[in-house]
């Protein structure tokens, strides 16, 4: 019997994504950054570039790719949380991108796909 909570499964997916970014030469600055307006799952840095990453996971892709579940409302929340992060950390001079990470499968066997620049701030 699998006793993992939804949060545990989400944490595993985020860990897979962190490992993927690190293999690609990114430094992961933060995870699960909360603000009044939203949350950023992962903040990664490569040179002067910052990536704000929304992680989506499904056990199977039978119902479609998990990345397709990041709608306008979620994008807005991620952008607002990212802007607050930039202000708090005094990083307003950085180039930024908003990525979506799709994880299909559970545990170490999950397949990670990154959509770089999946959306923009739109303001």
List the helices and strands and how they pair.
Blueprint: H1 6-23, E1 27-34, E2 39-46, E3 49-58, H2 72-88, E4 95-104, E5 111-119
Parallel strand pairs: 3-4
Antiparallel strand pairs: 1-2, 2-3, 4-5
Summary tags:
123 residues, alpha+beta, Trna Endonuclease, Chain: A, domain 1, five-stranded mixed β-sheet, 2 helices, 28% helix, globular
Fold and architecture overview:
The protein is α+β, with helices and mostly antiparallel strands. Helix content is 28%, strand content 37%. The longest helix has 18 residues, at 6-23.
**N to C succession of SSEs:** HEEEHEE
The name of the CATH topology is: Trna Endonuclease, Chain: A, domain 1
Structural class: alpha+beta
Q: How large is the count of helical segments?
A: 2
Shape: globular
**Total domain modules:** 1
How many strand units?
5
What ranges have pLDDT less than 50 throughout 5 or more consecutive residues?
A: none
Oligomer: single chain
Write a short abstract of this structure.
The protein is of the alpha+beta class. 28% of the residues lie in helices and 37% in strands. It has helices at residues 6-23, 72-88, and strands at residues 27-34, 39-46, 49-58, 95-104, 111-119.
